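help with this:

***
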Amino acid sequence: AFGLYFPRKEYSENVYIDQPAGTPLLRIHALRDSHGEVAHFHLCQNLIISRARSHENHWIQIREKTGLLYLSKSMDREDFSLLSVGNWMPLSKVMLYVFLSSHPFEENECDSATRTTVFLSLINATAPACSSLTARQLCFTEMDLSFHIKENKPPGTFHQLQLPSVHHLCQNLSISYKLLADEGMPFRYNENTTGVSVTQRLDREERERYELIAKCTVREGFREMQVEVPFLVNVLDEDDSPPFLPNGTDTADAVVEFNRKEGTVLAALTVYDADTTPIYPLESSRKKYTGTIITDDPWISETFRVEHIFDEIHFSPNGSQVRGTQHEY
């Protein structure tokens, strides 16, 4: 077991000049590897300004038990100048890491803990008026709604559609969401929290990718705006299924005729693996299922060899394509 994990590798959010301390920025979620795990979030390191430069983090904090990232100190123009490396552009980007553990953090755990990356766009202007924002800006960030969930793991909430920063800033607007999905998909949307949950353990060999739609409606007085964006869930593989022989064929006859040249193929057997796709470097896949001639005759060992070739193929269980591997010996 690998423990708790993040369903996204990256998050992004905007930070404006003079936003008040306490302003929520975004909520980060974690999923469990096994029942009983409780997520604890932590910021260990400095704000990373560039590859060669970082600065002590005085402005951003995270709530350990909820994953809510927020401003602990207002950022003024002097702070912006400090973090923008003397760059007078209206936007500067910094990066920070959020770390994850199943127990309260200790500082020496930062190097070994699971982490995700948050990109903050520091904008050298005050926050825009809500009326100037488009429905897309009010409802979703610029980052795609794309998630990775491990197969065979417990269900749980992995995303919140509502943007905490917008909800905090634009309380006079009514912003509501729906998750549009085909019947029977293992996901649930909670209207009260705007959280999206996976409701059961997923099986990658049954389905590798789910394509949903997140729909947002913004109402202000008699005016109504709607926007829809793709909401994608990819299922990560776990090595949980044995290889199998197509049609149960486990025997091949080899006929060796006179004066055959070296390299002549005499027989072939195929093995399918619905679990894994080709792994690079190539040698790591070859070592997983090796081809060996079992014999006591040294002449056979010297005269014949088994060659291993493998390719990615697609299976179609339940009408949905999933990747697998075809091994030829």
Notes: The longest strand covers residues 223-236. The helical segments are 77-83, 135-139, 164-169, 282-288, 298-303. The CA atoms of residues 7 and 109 lie 21 Å apart.
